[in-house]
Amino acid sequence: MPASLTASTRVVGVIGDPVRHSLSPLLHNAAFAAMRLDWASVAFPVPAGEVGPALAGMRALGVEGLSVTMPHKQAALAGVDHTSETATRLGAINTIVRRNGQLVGENTDGAGFLDAVHTAGCDPVGWRCLILGAGGAARAIVVALAGAGAAEVVVVNRTPTRAEQAAALAGAVGRVGSADEVDRADLVVHATPLGMLGVSPASRAGEQGPTSDQLPLDPARLGPGQLVVDLVYHPRDTPLLKAARDRGAMVQDGVGMLVHQAAHALAFWTGEKPPVAAMMAAVDSAPRLRA
Ligand code: NAP
Fold first, then answer.
1. 195/255 Cα distance (integer angstroms)
2. Its pTM surpasses 0.70
């Protein structure tokens, strides 16, 4: 964020509901400061069903770009002028870019996930991957891993039909599986809210929401030679990551993907290379994640 906001400051933001807890403005503003850009990022609370008016406002006010979070990732896709091939395939966007007065929808979750894995010194080419979950984040990762040359992308999910839909996105290397086969995976990705602090909504009518101590699999099946990634980042060191580390597996928390998907969005908006280290440092010092 610039030292002072002026009439020439360019504005981006994040839309969602709830959104006041979002780390996106912190990440974006840390990047703008390090890039010495007169840009600023803010959170825009937008209730479900209000994406259309929000995007009309974006156009009218000249907002340069938006991050899009729950519950708008699907609805926003219908409100932009163009979508990237990945976003079209996923049926969801997490980033809107203004290009020549038109709004372009992108999905940077998969690319951000791969970048995070690469920074851990890993490359999923030829890997057997097991994804727990079949929601928006899981689907983006399924597509990214298949595109990156994984040998197998196995989807495990509570609702079988959603598992089938997600696995199909990986083409020939995708299939539905069970958590019992986790011991033969090189990469295990947890993409459900289990283990998350604070937000534990019931996702199906009449059902109790997840609790922060729940594990999505039997940790006794994890061991050395595996990389376990948990997309949950509050807390950063989740019960799954603790259990995986105790069993000798390599672990990565959800902040890696969070930072790298935001870096892709910033590159789209500004046309410049984002300062990932400065963004990572901003998250490291965020009071919400230091608990
Ligand atoms: P989503 O689209 O709502 O999908 C949620 C997934 O979790 C679905 O597969 C759902 O299964 C499953 N699930 C929900 N409650 C469950 C329970 N009690 N037991 C077992 N499975 C359950 O959410 P999303 O956007 O994919 O996000 C998933 C997680 O990733 C969240 O924790 C989110 O915060 C995190 N995330 C992190 C990043 C990052 O950058 N680190 C980015 C995006 C998301 P059903 O299909 O059966 O409902």
1. 15
2. yes
Ligand 1 pocket test, pick from 197, 203, 228 with the greatest ligand atom count within 8 Å of Cβ, gives 203
Token pair of 281 as six digits: 């440092």
* Domains observed in the chain: 10-107+258-289 (3.40.50.10860), 110-253 (3.40.50.720)
- Please identify, by atom number, the ligand 1 atom nearest to the C-alpha of residue 258: 40
Give me ligand 1 centre to Cα 24, in Å.
18
Q: Please list the pLDDT of the chain residue by residue as tens digits (291 residues).
A: 666 899 999 999 999 999 999 999 999 999 999 999 999 999 999 999 999 999 999 999 999 999 999 999 999 999 999 999 999 999 999 999 999 999 999 999 999 999 999 999 999 999 999 999 999 999 999 999 999 999 999 999 999 999 999 999 999 999 999 999 999 999 999 999 998 876 444 444 445 555 556 788 999 999 999 999 999 998 899 999 999 999 999 999 999 999 999 999 999 999 999 999 999 999 999 876 764
**Ligand 1, atom 46, residue with closest C-alpha:** 159
